[in-house]
Amino acid sequence: MTSQALPQGPLIAFYGDDFTGSSAAMEATAFAGVETVLFLSEPTPERLAAFSHYRAIGVAGISRAKNPAWMDAHLPAIYALLAATGAPIIHYKICSTFDSAPHIGSIGRAAEIAAKTFEGWMPLIVADPSMGRYQAIGNLFAFAQGAIHRLDRHPVMARHPVTPMDEADLARHLSKQTDLKTGLVDFVAMKRGDGDAGLRAEIEGGAKIVSLDVLDSETLAEAGRLVWEERRAQRFCLGSQGLEAALVAHWRKTGLIPEISAPRGPTPVARIAGVSGSVSPVTASQISCARDNGFATIALDAARAVDARAWADEIDRATKDALAELSAGRDALVHSAAGPDDPAVAAFKTAVQTSGVAAETVNDRIGEGLGQILDRVIDATKLPRVVISGGDTSGRAASLLGIDALTAIAPLAPGAPLCRAHAQRADRDGLEIALKGGQVGAADFFVKARNGQ
User: Fold this and answer.
1) Residue 3: predicted pLDDT
2) At what angle do helices 359-381 and 343-355 cross, to 10 degrees?
């Protein structure tokens, strides 16, 4: 299916399974000149109407941290909302490291629910070379610590505290989550010009999900072509921001959108504040770099979150410390852990195990606590720019800030743009905010968020 021009109206409607990943999808289209808005909760018809001219519409979600029963209860309505936009591409956005398991963040269950509504095959594009993610013969690789690692040998993902990856073959990983058959169009077929034949063979062979290899700019654009030209009415897709990147690459290659340069990095601000719920070693290096560059880093005792009253006291303490540092002219960064080897991580696990409180309840408290701290800091200081780090906690934290939508305004790191907040509260409308996944960004991310480029 080809066309000489893009259709009118929304082109892509996506739901992100976490907040930070949702902003990565927004970045892929927005900085390519495709106007994109990301809602932080399911928008009302009136709120959607306020952004009616936007070509990509996203809803940031939390399904990566939820079980299949939650998905059964919530995803049908979300899919209906996306379909109602009329966009030809409906996208369930996942992490580019495929964070998922049968019991939590199940990509397979998300696909099964979609299969009840959307007809046809489901493209799966996970790799995104601009983010250091590559897929070859169905196996996912990711850059970290100066090298490219197969996902099951990745220094971060192999040790992920919630969804450790022990399998790089995405079809094998998905088979633990769903009985839907997964096929593959590999990069060899793509480079030989056999992508269409390979796709037809997989569909005729009963594949419901078809994974598309992406290694470089050529295979990225080819994956985008296979999705765009093989769409019928509305195509439900699975994938990371690599899906948007692939579509953009195809649209540019065929002249459907012009090639434009990404906007310049942000201008500097005098002070910023941030909160982090990530235990990634990448974030640990960023916290260390921030400390070396004038940030006051404030450790939050996450183990106290097993007791609601003790946790309220800890939130009060960290908020007061952050405000004191900001009053003294320093930037403030409140964090629940400084990497996986921080003794606070072991102390937290022990506290949860001995408390009898469900881990999901405690994790929710931590995310909400970080949001409460940042909300109080913004109220007291009127800071123009803030940062939230941690994919699993960012949704809970951001939801407490009184903002309901974001648009990308400047790049900070691939997958973590600086955004402008939109809110019906006048005091939060226009706030600048970056949502950063644990594995995203260079060591100087927080410093760059303050100093700009």
Assistant:
1) 55
2) 120
Copy the structure tokens of residue 161. 């505290």
pLDDT, one tens digit per residue, over 118-175 is 999 999 999 999 999 999 999 999 998 889 999 989 887 877 777 778 899 999 999 9
Structure tokens that stand for 193 in this block: 């010009």
- Report the alpha-carbon distance of residue 241 to residue 28 in Å, rounded: 7
CA dihedral 411, 413, 414, 420 (to 10 degrees): -40
Structure tokens at 369: 């606590």
The three-state (H, E, C) secondary structure of the chain, written as one string: CCCCCCCCCCCEEEEECCHHHHHHHHHHHHCCCCCEEEECCCCCHHHHHCCCCCCEEEEECCHHHCCHHHHHHHHHHHHHHHHHCCCCEEEEECCCCCCCCCCCCCHHHHHHHHHCCCCCCEEEECCEHHHCEEEECCEEEEEECCEEEEHHHCCCHHHCCCCCCCCCEHHHHHHCCCCCCEEEECHHHHHHCCHHHHHHHHHHCCCCEEEECECCHHHHHHHHHHHHHCCCCCEEEEECCHHHHHHHHHHHHCCCCCCCCCCCCCCCCCCCEEEECCCCHHHHHHHHHHHHCCEEEEECCHHHHHCHHHHHHHHHHHHHHHHHHHHCCCEEEEECCCCCCCHHHHHHHHHHHHHCCCHHHHHHHHHHHHHHHHHHHHHHHCCCEEEEECHHHHHHHHCCCCCCEEEEEEEEECCEEEEEEECCCCCCCCCEEEEECCCCCCCCHHHHHHHCC
pTM of the prediction?
0.89
Residue with tokens 């540092």: 325
Apex CA 19: angle with CA 17 and CA 21, to 5°? 70
Q: Which two tokens stand for residue 134?
A: 């590559």
